[in-house]
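Appendix B. Chain record.
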Amino acid sequence: MRFEFATATRIIFGAGVIREIGSIVAGMGRRALVLTGSTPDRFAALFELLEQAGIETAQYSVSGEPTTDMVRAATQRGRDFGVEFVLSCGGGSVLDSGKAVAALLTNGGEPLDYLEVIGRGQPLTQWAAPHIAIPTTAGTGAEVTRNAVLKSPEHRVKVSLRSPLMLPAVALVDPELTYSMPPAVTASTGLDAFTQVVECYVSNRANPLTDAICREGIARAARSLQRAYEQGDDAAAREDMAVASLFGGLALANSKLGAVHGFAGPLGGMFPAPHGAVCGRLLPFVIEANVRALAVREPESLALRRYDEVGRLVTGSPAATSADGVRWVQRLCEGIAVPALADYGITERDFPDMIEKAARSSSMKGNPIELTGAELRGILQQAL
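Structure tokens predicted for this chain:
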């Protein structure tokens, strides 16, 4: 057995840890580029804490999903200001932007020099600038992943800038920052976190470290996602989801995902669909397709037994099977109002393009079994 495990240099988790930011950034420099979402006023307290620590800041707002143009502009803002470190505070889009900007600041060039698929795919050669990643949602785990997903509108696709050299210097996870998430965002981000720990657990690249993380993440998300959706101020539920999100990021950075994310990436580049909601809609049908394919073509597969274990983890029943897990996920998605794919304007005419793009995706390579074109089409038809 051989595996590697890489993550942020330092992970700080706990309610209220955002208030320690002054001591955390000490020694990183005096000038920071701060990336936030589209309403930076929400982070007035953060800017005040940085000011008290003697940090001069330049600010950049990431509105919506990060694009190659946004990252290019934010990087130039950082260069013009002479920043010494990057701080990103927001959802996965903001954190991914921060990782990309921190990498470009030290490696030079622009996003297309390093992007997979649509770019030149050059490897990063220098460690990214020091980067403090602070999530305000509980979903992507982007604070501990080694890639940044960027959207290229002209190519109608999302692609990754990927390297271990992009891992943040500090991942600061404060569950209190997620309390203000509205129910729809709680649902979408939470389903992304849940899907990540499930897919990494059955992945063909799983390892003992990611196994332990995924089991814990699945159990926490299963007991708390619906509760966080219904009661946003439930501190215990929010903490569970923050842990599940962090663990999903740790797992995917060190194993692989699967067919759900194989579809969700290209689909998100083609349609204005929330990533996590798409993951939740696809997940039960991907599990069913994988279990059927494994039972026929690889009946001795470890993943087949693991899908049964997922059923036991989410239901709490020692006799549960993968089918029970599928029904549990479907009930969860109904309870948190996950839309069908057709609600985003997707039709069967889009399937060939979606299947072709998904088959080329990095995530699909982690699926526990290679699915046929007919099997992939069947998943989309059920989710439509």
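Further analysis of this model is presented in Appendix C.
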